Structure formats: C-alpha cells, structure tokens
Amino acid sequence: MRTVFKNLVVAVITLEARAVLRKYKPKIVAITGSVGKTSTKDAIYAALARGGRVRKSEKSFNSEIGLPLTILGVPNAWHNPLRWLQNIVDGLFLLVLTVEYPEWLVLEVGADRPGDIRSLAAWLPVDIAVITRLPEIPVHVEFFDSPEAVMEEKASLLDAIKPGGTLILFADDERTAKLAHRLPAPDACIITFGFSKGADVRGEHIKLLKEGGKESWPIGMQAQITSEGVSVPLQVVGAVGPHAFLPALAAAAVGAALHRPLADIVGALGRYDPPPGRMRLLRGLKGTLIIDDTYNASPAATEAALDTLASIGGTRRIAVLGDMLELGRHSTQEHRKLGAHAAKAADLLVTIGFRARDIAQGALDAGMPDKNILQFEDSGKAGAELQNLLQEGDCVLVKGSQSMRTERVVEEIMAEPERAEQLLVRQDAEWKKR
Fold first, then answer.
1. Domain boundary among 240, 271, 302
2. Are the CB atoms for 217 and 195 separated by under 8 Å?
3. Mean pLDDT of the chain, nearest integer
4. CB-based burial of residue 427 (10 Å sphere; 0-12 exposed, 13-18 middle, 19+ buried)?
5. Which of 34, 57, 301, 336 could form a disulfide with 138 if both were Cys (CB 3.0 to 4.6 A apart)?
6. Which stretches make up the Mur ligase central domain (predicted)?
7. Is the dihedral of CA 130, 110, 105, 184 positive or negative?
8. 234-249 pLDDT per residue, tens
9. For residue 308, what is the domain's CATH number?
10. Do 66 and 202 fall within a single domain?
C-alpha cells in the first residue's frame, strides 16, 4: 500500500512540476556527476543569488521525488501522508494563482538506478548543464551493468539541454571531457573548468589558507581563478583539499556562460559556505583537527580525501574509514585498493563495518603494521574508542557511506558537540530516528 501511495504521489507532483515549469518558465541549471554535485550546486546558487530570485535543491534532493519538490518549493514529507497531500495542494495553488516564482532553479540531478536521469531529461528543459567528475568506479555501480552504464546514465542529462544552451564540463577528468563530443543541442556552447591548463575557467596557485603562523592548522584553501585572461583571488574557508575549489570553478564557469564579470562571481562566492560533511574542517578534542567528509563515500572521493590528509600532516594522521556501499562486484577490490592508499597516507587506520575489513587487509598487505589498524562494527563504538586514542596535534579524516553514519564518530570527537546540529550531516529528526 505504501508503494502504491508513493508512486501516485510522485506521479502527481511530477505533473504539477512540469506544469509549473511551463507556466513560469524559469532558467534551469542542472548538475550531475559522481563526485561533488551538492557542493557544486551550493556554489552556483551563491554565485547566482546576488541580485535575483534563485532556488536550489535542498540538501541532496536529486531524485524523481526531490526535483519535483524543489520545483514546487515544498518539503520532503517523509512518511507523513497528510503532509504529502498538503504538498499536492500547494502545487495546485502555484498553477491556479500567479506568484513571484524564482527566475533561476539550481537543481542537483542524481542517478541511483538505470533510467533515473533519462526519465527526468524527457521533461526538464535545461539552460545550463554542469557535469562534475565521472570516476572509473562510481558510486551506485552495484545497480548498473557496468561503470560505463553509470556514465551513460549521467550523460543522458545532455539530452535535456535546450537549443542555444550551455554544457559545462570538468576538464581534468578524461571521461567527463569526452562528453563534449556528444552534445545533441544545436548551437549549444561548451565551457570547461578545472586545474588543467586547457580549462576555460582555471584554478591556479592553490594552497592551504592558515590563520596564524606556519605551524598552525589550516582554515581553508586559497587560489587564483583565471578566465579569459582575467585572474581573481578566492578563498574557500571551512573546507580543505584541491577539490574544495572545484565547486567555485564550476560556479565561475556558469558566470562565464552568462557573461558576468569574473570579479562579480568571485565576490558572490564570498557567501558560499561548504556544506556539512564535505571535507569540512572542525576543531577536535585535545587540540586535534577533524576533516569531516562523512556525507558519502566512493573510491575516487575517498582516495582524494586521503591525499589531502597526507598533505596536512600533524602529530599523527588518522584515517577513519567506513564501508563504501553500492559497489557490487567491485567492492572487495576497491576496498583493498583503498587500504593500500591509506597505508601511505595515514599513521593510524580505523575501519568501520564488514566491507571495511578489506580496507584493513589492503593496508596490511601494503605494509602498515597490524598495531596501527583498529577495526569496529559500527560508528558509535569507533567514536568512543577514538576519544581515548586522540593526542594533541592529531589530524583525523572521517569518511564513509551514508548508511554507515560516520558523522557519529565526528560527534564523539569534536570540540563542540553542542553544535552538531549546525555542523554535521544528517541531523534532522528523520535521520535521528534511524
């Protein structure tokens, strides 16, 4: 019965969302990829929000339900049937009345199963499509025939681009860059972003941003953004790692597509606050630093996070890694590869979950001493033990798939647990029940 009700609600709110788009005709920026969608969405929203009515997908509303909810401007009702009915009524009001609707929608588009994006592309008129990184082994590959099938699904967003629209691609990723040859929309233009020399919007001279002296902890990143011969400095405070800059570069590329001055876009990005659980820097107990990357985990993103951990240093570098889910037949191999990577990047490895045992095994095989590897069944136990192990000057990376709830580790070791609701992912009531 619940499935029937859900399917009926999705059908109704999707029809309403399509009708709302036809009536109000907002401009649409749609973002997909396998890494960095939410951060990119938030940065683009910050860049466009100055001087205009802009709405973005809340949190990670990127599914067949999430996109219509964003278009209608109504909340996720979770398991509340009355709230879902209220959402339907609110959608009807948008159609019956004429309201001040957003001029821009910034939408995150995800693909958990085959056909997810293809079905959305059939009715979503996209002005600007942004494709982030498409790694060799993407998340959700378990539900597809192959990694290539995941990439094909992501690429189907190109079919939604309107004539004269814009495709923005991550230049540093070969798989993403190849999509330039598949653009079906006539008269559409292509803009690339990244750190490579050939990117249209380029990040250069990137380095850690520190508040005090040379030995102090980093508070963010700083770099130059260059486009069409113009170079402007930008600081991203609160997150770390080269990939913390990619959302800003994507936002600058959107600005270039709209012929907005680079300095104006960078100025607007001063309001960009990296979302929780995405390489966020938090103060930990006993004078430690936490790199909170607990939103989700894939092989490529976790390797990048480990590289950042290695670059920061500290008295000890501690990697707390949970299961990476939805990898299917690639799971054992990818977890062991990650363990070998962790052995080079970290001094102490803490694993959480059944699949993460292969991370531990990979680290052992790569030469990490057994005494430097701790294994736990769940995040609560890992966090409690980590409290006792921390030493002043430790730098701790915490990362795992959503259902591993590795944010609970961060809550156990953060210096300000009373601010968990503000600083950590999955703090709303529905997640707290799980």
1. 271
2. no
3. 94
4. middle
5. 34
6. 31-77, 100-253
7. positive
8. 999 999 999 889 999 9
9. 3.90.190.20
10. yes
Look at the alpha carbons of 62, 65, 422, 90 in this order and tell me if their dihedral is positive or negative.
Answer: positive
- Cross-sheet strand order for the sheet of 348-352: 280-284, 288-292, 395-399, 317-322, 348-352, 373-376
CA distance 103 to 264: 19
- Tell me the CA distances in angstroms from 177 to 151, 174, 279, one per residue in order: 12, 5, 25
Do 143 and 222 have their domain in common?
yes
Specify the amino acid at residue 366.
Answer: A
pTM of the model: 0.94
Residues 287 and 419 in one domain: yes
Q: How many domains does the chain have?
A: 2
Domain end (from 247, 271, 295): 271
Q: State the Cα–Cα distance between residues 3 and 215, nearest whole angstrom.
A: 56
Task: Tell me, yes or no, whether 196 and 76 share the same domain.
Answer: yes
Which residues are within 8 A (CB) of 269 and not within 5 positions of it... i.e. 6 or more apart?
43, 46, 47, 234, 248, 251, 252
| Model confidence pLDDT, tens digit, residues 374-397 | 999 999 999 999 999 999 999 999
Q: Which tokens is 275 given?
A: 């979302």
Confidence at 36, pLDDT banded by 50, 70, 90: very high
Same domain, 209 and 264: yes
Q: What pLDDT is recorded for position 30? A: 98
Per-residue pLDDT of 206-237, as tens digits, reads 999 987 655 589 999 999 999 999 999 999 99
Cα 324 to the chain's mean position, in Å? 15
For residue 127, give the CATH number of its domain: 3.40.1190.10
424's tokens: 């950590």
Domain that holds residue 389: 280-432
Strand, coil or helix: 179 = helix
Q: Which residues pair with 209 in a beta bridge?
A: 220
Under the banding of pLDDT at 50, 70 and 90, the label for residue 431 is confident
pLDDT given for residue 166 in this prediction: 97
Burial of 374 (0-12, 13-18, 19+ CB in 10 A): middle
pLDDT of residue 214: 53
Whether 251 and 146 share a structural domain: yes
Domain identity same for 244 and 286: no
Mean pLDDT throughout 57-80?
87
Do 77 and 204 lie in one domain? The reply is yes
